[in-house]
Design a protein that fits this description.
It holds the Pfam family HupE_UreJ_2. It comes from Gemmatimonas groenlandica. This is HupE/UreJ family protein. The chain is α+β, with helices and mostly antiparallel strands. The chain is built from 8 helices and 9 strands. It has a 6-stranded mixed β-sheet with strand order 4-5-2-1-7-8. A 3-stranded antiparallel β-sheet has the order 3-6-9. β1 and β2 form a beta hairpin. α4 (about 195-205) runs parallel beside α6. About 35% of the residues are buried.
Length: about 350
Amino acid sequence: MSARRMLVALSVALTTFAAPLHAHLMPAQSGTLNVRGRAVFGALSIPVSTLTGFDDDGNGRLSPIELQRHDAALQQQISSRLQLTNGTDRGSRDFLQLSVELVENDPASAGGGTHVLVLVKQTFIAAPAQLAIHTDLFGSTGSEQQLAIKAMHDSTAEMAVLRASHPNHQFFQSPAHVATQYSALGIEHILTGVDHVLFVLTIIVAAAGWRYWLTVLTSFTVAHSITLALGMLNVVRISPSIVEPLILASIVLMFALNITHKATKLPVRAAIVFACGLLHGLGFASAMADIGLSGSSKLISLTAFNAGIELGQAAIVAVALLAIFAAKAHRPKPVPPFTLSAVDS
C-alpha cells in the first residue's frame, strides 16, 4: 500500500473514533485501535515527557522544528516501546507517523506541544482475534500516568486503561478467559492481603459455633461485595489514603472487642462486621483500580473477581477452622484431682 493510501486509511480510522479537543486530533492520554481485516490502524496521543533526546531548547515541550529535527530517532524510540501483537504473531509495522499536538489559544503552545500524536498501521498474518497492546509510553506527571485505549473490531468495542502498573491488555477475550483471569486475581489479592486475612481471622476466633461463623462471614461477604461493586463501577470513590488506615482500624477494633468481650451478642457483632466489610470492599476496589474491569465484559470480570475473593476467603476460613478443631482435639484432657483416702489405723 502506498504512503498516500495509508494516510487516507489512518485518517478515516482516526476521524471515526476521535473527537476534537481544541486543536488536538486526539484527547490527551487516549487512543484508538481499529481492526480492518488483517490490519490494525492506531492513533494514540502520548505525553512528550515520556520521550528523550528531542528537547533542544529545554522547555519540556516538543516543537514542530524539534520534531522535524529528531523525527527518525523519536519514531524508533516510540516504535520500540509500543507493541501490538496477535497471539504470538508480532505482525509487521507498515507505517508510523508523528505530529505535534498544539492547543489553540494557549500562549505556551508557541514553544511546542505537551503531547504527540502517533499514527500507526500494523499488519498480521491473520485477522487479529487476540489483539494485545503493551507500552510504557507514560508521562512523568500524575495526570500522564495512564493511557485510555478504545479498540474496535466490526461491531465490537472495548475500552482499556493502561497504567505503569498495568502496561498491557488483551482485547476481545472470551468470557470464559475473562472469568478465569479475574477469579485468579481475586484469589491472589485476598491471600496476599495481610490486612484482609487478619480481619477474617479476628472474626473467626471471636466465638465458636457454626451459627456464629456463618452469620459474621455472610455479613462480611455481603458488605464488601456491595462496596467492591460500587467502587469498581465508579459509583463510590474514596482515596486509598483514607480507606487503608480505616481498614487497619477495623482490625484493631475487632481485636479489642475480642479481648474485652464487648459486643458479644450476635446481631451486634454482625452489624459491626458489616460496617467493617464496607471498608474492606473499598480496599478491594482500590487495589483493582490499576487493573480495571474488562472493557467488553465488565459484569463478568466484576463477578469473577468477587468470586475469587470469596474462594480465597473460604480457604482462609477452612485453614483457620481446621487449626481450631485440631487444637481442641489435641488439647490435654483435664486430670481429675488426686486425693488420698483416709486409712483407718
